[in-house]
Amino acid sequence: MAVLSRLYTDHPLAQGHNIPLERDQAHYLFGVMRRKLGDEVELFNGRDGEWRGKVVHANKHRGILEVTHQTRPLQMPPDLWLMFAPIKKARTDFIVEKATEMGAARIVPVMTEYTNSDRVRQEKMQIHAVEAAEQCGGTYVPEVAELQKLDRMLDNWPDGRQLLFCDEGLIGRPTGLDQSKLTAVNKTGPWAILIGPEGGFSEKERNRLASLDFVTTQSLGPRILRADTAAVAALTLWQRELGDWK
Amino acid sequence: MAVLSRLYTDHPLAQGHNIPLERDQAHYLFGVMRRKLGDEVELFNGRDGEWRGKVVHANKHRGILEVTHQTRPLQMPPDLWLMFAPIKKARTDFIVEKATEMGAARIVPVMTEYTNSDRVRQEKMQIHAVEAAEQCGGTYVPEVAELQKLDRMLDNWPDGRQLLFCDEGLIGRPTGLDQSKLTAVNKTGPWAILIGPEGGFSEKERNRLASLDFVTTQSLGPRILRADTAAVAALTLWQRELGDWK
Fold first, then answer.
1. Which residues of chain B lie closer than 8 angstroms to A240, CB-CB?
2. Contact: B221, A103; criterion CB under 8 Å
3. pLDDT of res. B175
4. Less packed terminus of chain A by CB within 10 Å, N or C?
5. In this complex, which of B137, B220, B246 lies closest to A224 when CB atoms are compared?
6. Nearest Cβ partner of B225 from A101, A229, A240?
7. pLDDT tens-digit map of A53-100
8. What is the ipTM score, two decimals?
9. Which residues fall within 8 angstroms of residue A168, CB to CB, at 6 or more apart?
10. Beta partners for B7?
11. For chain A, which domains are there?
């Protein structure tokens, strides 16, 4: 079976609209994928669901798609943030990709005491999230936030949002969420997941997190997980118990 | 804090034993990590737990470690196989790494109807599992099996082993294991997880799997997951409900 190319666009999507292609999209569609006039493409913009587009103008550096019909409605993920301490480039890209596939609504790189990297290529991470959504068939693209200090984020924590703190210090403890702490509101309200850097959290950070009433601590089994593995595992547990995998 | 280097060795580990280093281990320890006589190293062999070793001989291409004392017992993972259809090299390596971290006992590459790759570098995958165990602090290294045909494996399926079949065709169904099908024996007995190739399973394969009484089908949420993401998510669900994360 032929697989349709799938493109993200900033433009509004509705029947009859014409969507101009970016230069690299035109290169990809016509140069790499050899699409021709009349060929179909899947389109999404993170807001209007998924639509079918037809090539109505094509040359090497430009092209126009005409939007024909909607193929899927917008599927919003739950209101879940993934907070993580940036690590090496390849693994940071991986975390962004996995967070997109696993249905995080927002990706927040945070500086912790043991974070090695204080430079985050936010724009590149956002492009990576778009590519991940293109590939995994998503209709939504999580926003990648600017790098923030963990301490400052906790100082200004938004009312009503719960935080699932994945603590390497808990290795070997039971891994189910302690739902006894959660009220009906917490179960359906907004959440965030916090994954630590390779060196773990500092004692000071762990103590502060443990003392906050919006924090639930969570063990991720008896083995040490890399940050990218921990992200997928934590997102799985959360989606399964509180999110849209229920 | 200084982090100890961690090495896998084929040799038996017990107090007073001398462990000769491979050429690349000597290069890594003395050339890259600048370890000197008397420096300590962590050692494991997948059988005897984790031991502390001390450098008692070092030159550019050779070295000997003396085993001083045990630091951790062997921690066996549950009797769980991860079966997956090989994909591109980088993602296949990733699946091997993640299966090691997440506590699979055996990794089995399988050929399915839609598997693109019929060549598997089994030896390189095994080396990758060793490196993953070195990095994640594991004391056990999963065995990487030879590439096998899915059909033939199902023909000769071992008595008493259950198979968790992660079926992309179930997208959107509830993701909890249907434990009503599982007896007390199944809950503690050996298992395997089967992850599909990028193109999914064929209709014929899906029908056959659904008809087998040792198979439990499992959905992995409402979004399409890449094979490597699906592997971590399925291992998380299994470890949480039936394995050593309980």
1. 175-176, 237, 240
2. yes
3. 57
4. N
5. B137
6. A101
7. 999 999 888 999 999 999 999 999 999 999 999 878 778 899 999 999
8. 0.89
9. A196, A200, A201, A220, A224
10. B43
11. 5-72 (2.40.240.20), 80-241 (3.40.1280.10)
